[in-house]
């Protein structure tokens, strides 16, 4: 009996080891399905001085792993200059992962789903569509662009509260393309987390930590600037 238990233990160990190796090989296999597409979000705002608009790109990558889907994304927040040194920002967050699926629902037809067929189709689509209001990205603004602590959430149906009379959200669109990731534009507006030339590593790290604290627990710097995927 004792010997049987010992051999069974060894057998189980071998099975576990083989399972782990198989999982690693599956995850690292060059044959794993990977789908990727670029999407450009454009936000238009009506103001007393005319229509103001801003656009920014995000890149979505989906990898199939053992029957599940790992989704990663990168890109920058969309910035719209509303006037008087005030900006509206559409954030980069988890909602953008499925934004193309929802926005291009009619184009997908019966392939509208989080599935191999859905990702295959959406990665090959090109064009521009209006984003349904229920899938609008989170919107924020800053009372003081140089102070992340002054961040405020913006109701898409009530821009007047933050920007004054005559300011309304006109349209949000999403364009699918195969363009490569672009970055570096948002930091020209919001760069409080960036190191200054000659600044020590400790000081730079402290700056990032302080900026994150001021943004609050529900937001992070990556909601404005998420580096391009490798």
Strand order of the largest sheet: 6-9-1-2-3-10
Largest sheet: 6 strands, antiparallel
Shape descriptor reads globular
Q: N-to-C terminal Cα separation, in Å?
A: 54 Å
Q: What is the number of strand segments?
A: 10
- The whole-angstrom Rg is 23 Å
Number of helices: 6
Spans where pLDDT lies below 50 across 5 or more residues? 1-29
Mean pLDDT: 81
Structural class, by secondary structure, is alpha+beta
Strand content: 25-35%
Write the H/E string, N to C: HEEEEEHHHEEEHEHE
Helical content stands at 25-40%
Description:
With 230 residues, the chain is α+β, with helices and mostly antiparallel strands. Helix content is 28%, strand content 32%. The protein contains six helices and ten strands, in the order H-E-E-E-E-E-H-H-H-E-E-E-H-E-H-E. It has helices spanning 2-28, 99-103, 105-108, 116-124, 160-163, 201-215, and strands spanning 34-47, 50-65, 68-76, 78-83, 86-90, 127-130, 139-142, 151-153, 168-177, 225-226. Strands 6-9-1-2-3-10 form a six-stranded antiparallel beta sheet. Strand 7 and strand 8 (151-153) form a beta hairpin. Residues 1-29 have low confidence and may be disordered.
């Amino acid at each position: 009996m004792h010997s049987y238990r010992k051999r069974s233990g060894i057998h189980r160990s071998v099975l576990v080891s083989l399972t782990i190796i198989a999982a690693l090989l599956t995850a690292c296999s060059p044959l794993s399905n990977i789908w990727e597409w670029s999407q450009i979000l454009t936000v238009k705002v009506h103001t007393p001085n005319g229509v103001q608009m801003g656009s920014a790109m995000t890149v979505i990558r989906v990898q199939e792993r053992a029957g599940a889907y790992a989704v990663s994304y990168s890109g920058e927040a969309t910035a719209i200059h509303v006037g008087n040194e005030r900006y509206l920002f559409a954030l980069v967050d988890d909602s953008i992962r499925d934004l193309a699926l929802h926005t291009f629902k009619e184009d997908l037809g019966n392939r509208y789903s989080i599935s191999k067929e859905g990702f295959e189709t959406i990665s090959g689509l090109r064009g521009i569509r209006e984003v349904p209001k229920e899938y609008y990205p989170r919107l924020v603004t800053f009372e003081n662009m140089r102070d992340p602590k002054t961040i405020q959430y913006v109701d898409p149906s009530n821009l007047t509260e933050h920007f004054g009379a005559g300011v309304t959200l006109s349209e949000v669109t999403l364009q699918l393309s195969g363009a490569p990731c672009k970055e570096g534009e948002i930091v020209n507006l919001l760069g409080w987390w960036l190191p200054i030339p000659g600044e020590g590593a400790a000081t730079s790290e402290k700056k990032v930590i302080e900026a994150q604290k001021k943004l609050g627990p529900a937001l992070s710097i990556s909601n404005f600037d998420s580096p391009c995927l490798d």
